[in-house]
Amino acid sequence: MARMAIVEVAPEGYRAASALERYSRENVEHDIYELIKLRSSQLNGCAFCVDMHGSDMLKAGMPFRKINSVAAWREADWFTERERAALELAEQATLLPGGVPDEVWHAAAKVFTERELADLLFAIATINVWNRLMVSTQSGPKPAQL
Fold first, then answer.
1. Are the C-beta atoms of residues 124 and 89 closer than 8 Å to each other?
2. Is the pLDDT of residue 97 over 90?
3. Domains of the chain
4. Which of 31, 28, 55 shows the shortest CA–CA distance to 141?
5. Per the CB 3.0–4.6 Å rule, which of 10, 46, 69, 97 could disulfide with 76?
């Protein structure tokens, strides 16, 4: 059970995070948006977001095999160059092991415009906000309906 219903306790903050989420969803290519949301959520251990984004990807028609391999994307050859660049950027910006290395930035800048990179960073930052809120409040996924 969740520690709190953050949407009820701080509705203004929730609306602000939701507005940034809407911006990201509208400005980042759909498949890349979902891939970075899933990967960052996996890294942050956010079961709520992993479940939600994996389910959304499946409903949108992404192959299960691709969704299932996001955690091991480097070893799967079916991710495009843009997807790989976005996934690497998402990992580095989520973990922040001293910042995003130049080689990661340059690889992403090679396949994304400057505006696309800015929008990707907003999307990565936003999922990290959601992950931290959900993990901190112990908001797990909805009960399984197998």
1. yes
2. no
3. 14-136 (1.20.1290.10)
4. 55
5. 69
For 9-52, write each residue's pLDDT tens digit.
Answer: 999 999 999 999 999 999 999 999 999 999 999 999 999 899 99
Q: Rounded CA gap, 146 and 128, in Å?
A: 28
CA atoms of 100 and 98, how far apart (whole Å): 7
Please state, in angstroms and rounded to a whole number, the distance separating the CA atoms of residues 59 and 146: 15
Which residues in 30-48 are b (16+ Cβ under 10 Å) and which e?
Answer: ebbbbbbbbbbbbbbebeb
Q: Rounded to an integer, what distance in angstroms lies between the CA atom of residue 58 and that of residue 65?
A: 10
Q: What pTM, to 2 d.p., does this model score?
A: 0.90
Q: How far apart are CA 40 and CA 10, in angstroms?
A: 24
